[in-house]
Amino acid sequence: MTELHRLENYDITILNSFIENEVEESIHIEFKSGEALSKSDSKKKEVSKDVSAFANSDGGIIVYGISEKNHKANKFTYVDGKVFTKEWLEQIISTTIKRNIDGLKIHPIRNNGKIDESIYVVQIPSSINAPHLSRDYRFYKRYNFESIPMEEYEIRQLYGRKVKSELQLSGYSIRVKEIGEEETTFTCESGVYNVGEKYETDYKVNIYFDNFNKHIDIKWRADGVGRNYNYTRLLNGRTIKIANNALPTIYPEETINAIRFDFEVRNENILEAFEELKIRFWLFYPNGKDEMETDLNEWSKRIMKDVERQTNTIYNNDHN
After folding, report:
1. Same-domain check for residues 62 and 131
2. 3-class SS of residue 318
3. DSSP 3-state helix, strand, coil percentages of the chain (rounded to 5)?
4. Are 225 and 183 in contact (CB under 8 A)?
5. Are 125 and 105 in contact (CB under 8 A)?
6. By residue range, what is the domain housing residue 253?
7. Considering its fold, how many domains does the chain have in total?
8. Closest Cα to residue 116, out of 139, 137, 138, 85?
9. In this structure, are 196 and 142 located in the same domain?
10. Which of 164, 47, 62, 61 minimizes the C-alpha distance to 94?
11. Residue where a domain terminates, one of 158, 176, 207
12. CA 71 – CA 85 distance, rounded (Å)
């Protein structure tokens, strides 16, 4: 389940659930009443301090428009969006915090479309450009329910945060390797690309075959020689997970073929084998993850035409 501060989108239903479930403030979540947004200098300093603290820590969200009671979401106390616009809040953040926070998002939510009943969810990443300086010329971090000044050694440590690995899937390939008279062999593979500034030694690629069925025969070498992967049938019984074993160190701007294997399908069962099959490619590493997904239904129909043409050619060549 995605953590509350990492959701892709927020709406009034989600925010209402915060109140109904009495979601508690934490190192990742803070609730602020609508009155926390003001044109007074002291309120602007508070915004600057809180936002920079999240960026200097592990990221999180600040919800302007929900008050807290005993550090739990209590009730809606809306922001007047006609007076305090999303653009105004963006400007306060960008002009009061030294070094911009890349990836920061502001989600405006209106109660029944009423602009004067707005809530702003400020979603702040753990910034690779940390440390960020607040308007009062201090560095802050999140600690439990609050933003507190950082120690000198903590500030020094943050200067090394930018130098880290950042990996992504370089893509994937599912292609026909060989068309036989009775069955077709496919090759599935995926690679990893290091787009960061540091080498990485700890990363893993998982490939999930969802709605796996009896028509798909993954080719495993019995002795394991030349194989850099293993597989597991998950508890739901309909998903096969194929994972790479140890991978070499990947350096900045380097691409590595992480996993490659073959599987076979009898020609007469190709459409049935791929009808509901989905293949997901997931990359995991200490600083994050990346994922891709493909639906093979339409692709299999095109493959089937190639198989039919090829097998007809094989039959004719063998019997002329």
Report:
1. yes
2. helix
3. 25, 40, 35
4. no
5. no
6. 167-319
7. 2
8. 85
9. no
10. 47
11. 158
12. 26
**What is the domain-level CATH number for residue 64?**
3.30.950.30
Q: What is the pLDDT along the chain (320 residues), one digit of tens a residue?
A: 568 998 999 999 999 999 999 999 999 999 999 999 999 999 999 999 999 999 999 999 999 999 999 999 999 999 999 999 999 999 999 999 999 999 999 999 999 999 999 999 999 999 988 999 999 999 999 998 899 999 999 998 888 676 677 899 998 889 999 999 899 999 998 999 998 878 888 999 999 999 998 899 987 655 444 456 777 888 677 899 998 877 889 998 899 999 888 999 999 999 999 988 999 999 999 888 899 988 888 888 888 888 888 766 544 444 33
Same domain, 245 and 223: yes
DSSP label at 159? T
Residue position matching structure tokens 């009808």: 275
Domain boundary among the residues 158, 188, 220 is at: 158
Domain shared by 247 and 299, yes or no: yes
Residues 139 and 201 in one domain: no
Q: Which two tokens stand for residue 63?
A: 């919800």
